[in-house]
Amino acid sequence: MAEVRVENLTKTYGPLKALDAVTLDFRDGGFFGLLGPSGSGKTTLLRAIAGFVIPDDGRVLIGGEPVERVPVEAREIGMVFQSYALFPNMTVADNVAFGLDVRRIRGAERDRRVKDVLDLVQLGDLGQRKPHQLSGGQKQRVAMARAIVTRPRVLLLDEPLSALDKALRVEMQVELKRIQREVGITTIFVTHDQEEALTLSDEIGILRNGRLVRHGPPREVYNNPRDAFTARFLGEANLFSGSLEAGGLRLPDGALIPGATTAMVAVRPENVQVSASEPSGPIRLRAEIRRRIFAGAMGTLILDRHGEPIKAIARDSEFAELPDNGRVWLSWREGSAIPVENAPN
Amino acid sequence: MASAILRRDRLRALTLLSPAYLWLTVAIFLPLSAMVFFSVLTDVPFGDREWHLTAGNYQAFLETGTYARLLWKSLQLGATVTALSVLIGFPCAYVLAKVVRGRSREALFLLVVLPFWSNSLVRIFSWAIVLRGNGVLDRAVNAVLPWPVKLNLMYSQSAIVIGLVHSYLPYVILTSYLALQAIDDSLIEAARSLGAKRLTILRRLILPLSMPGLVAGAVLIFVPVVGSFMEPRLLGGRLGTYYGTLIEDQFVAVFNWPLGAALSFILLAVVLVILGLASPILRKARL
Fold it and tell me: ABC transporter domain: which residues (chain A) (predicted)?
């Protein structure tokens, strides 16, 4: 177990900067989620920590020790691949024991550790199966067991749950978190699923075009995204921009958002209140209802404000008395408008 | 109702398969049956020759030690050529599948397949030019080494093996290449992340996973090499008497088709027995 640090990490593929001077600390024992759209460099960062990608510049430190020149097989890492990469010619037990065999851990010690880790991932009685006889969730558990049995200094997960269906994914998220807590290994995982990142991580990092845009505890980043990209990427956000005045933010159509201190603010859809009658508060915007989406308990309203789409989410019953089409009022409580910077591309 | 549909499906399947069955009948079953028939005759049933049924051709194999000795010699040749082809071909296939990428892979592939596209007779005579005394190889070695060496590989066991390995190498390279290509790179990465070095990865992952291709290639080589006659005759000269040349002589020179046919079927039987004995090992290699 160890903390991981990358410093000024840079990797280019031809004209493309996959990693652009990324500096980031991964706390010892923490669960760290790397998030970003495809091509943002999140997988490259993970593979650079693993040693499969050799950076052009910068440093990778595991437990304070620089490892840029240490080959993958000597870095003492555990890795779970998107495809699980279980060895098809070996049984589950032999798959799990592979790392122990390599370290010449034999006999009773080997058997005990394989049994313990299979119990930990709740596959105690499947040791003699071959990988092709397992379900997706079971393969995932074997991959996890194989990666942690050697007690690596850091555990790297590359989109570990993306191959599972939704119900199983939620179940495995809980499992993953439980296993990580029990073994306490510093864990870094890559995902494009923001909900997964928010659920699992102690800390998240958001990458875009090879740069680290934002990092911190999920709640903090979600509540205070600071820039338009993060606001939109992590959760959903309605963005309002205009010119800053003494009283607040003046939108192009003349409406004023009082109290705003930046030229752009983001409002989460769940904070947008929609009403047929004029609200009493200081924030009053007009919009037209375009579409109503019913999704069980929650309902989504797509509105139009001078050609700009706006999204509102609430319990479906709250939208009940609204007209299907026509003009309505938008408002939100003061403090719901998050000041953000317009992110450069 | 269901049985009617089943019957109709079966009829349709039969109709669709009939060209294949017809082809198999004409191209394989009929000639092979004719040869089985010839092998139990005293003489070829052409013209007004006298013939009757006999088991004598098969007895001849058991009574004459020479035939069995030649068969043993051919089996050894088959084993040697197969072993060498695997030893040379598998690393080549590995480099092709896992090391080189893009255009250079295509170029290398062309070089591998080239022997297939050249006439085998031309190929063998080219080897004769290379291997003979004062030939290409002899001169090249003498040009490099400061002391004179007499290098005449022509008309030797080595010449036969070199010629055969060159002819059959593409089989093992191609079958191994396909098997290696099917191994996901993430498996190798996973093994590395668990601390495995190259040799461990080769022994515990790559070899077991590519074994089916390797074995298929070995079988494709072993069977025809045991019956080969052209390479032994042209490159082996006086030493080049093998079971294959023996059979060829019966058909081409001595005109004893019945004995030639009988010897062929004995070879077929022996090869089948060997493959049968090896099949438990082969099946294990297939996971």
Answer: 4-234
